[in-house]
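New to this. Explain the following:
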Amino acid sequence: MKYVVLVSHGTFAPGLHSVLKMLAGGDREDILSASMEDGMGADAFTQRFQKTIEAVEEEDEVILLADIIGGSPLTNALDVLSQRGLLGRTRAFGGMNLPMALTASMMKDAMDMDALAASMLQESKNAIQEMKLDAAEEEEADI
């Protein structure tokens, strides 16, 4: 099985997981999340992450999405995956957002990992845009 695993500081990963449940088809066993909450140390997060990925087996693949590259949730998650012998079957990404996570969740079984990674990164980048607002139009509409 291919798992999408979300990790973050605060409640970002569980929040994104909740949105994925709405958009990607309910409570899926292939989407997991763990967060390092305020005041939580690395050891406590590591224990939480180990429990989160208990179902992941040696032959499974992991798509690991994290809030930031180099952050404690990502580095500790990679350490746990390495200890479990899963690092060679893991692709890790930083800067996760909803389009990236949704693409991973919906397309992971339909594409090879290289194509999926490219698609996830492109969708993520395409989603970041400034919305141009025209205040003059708003003022005219109020008259």
The radius of gyration is 17 Å. The longest strand covers residues 2-9.
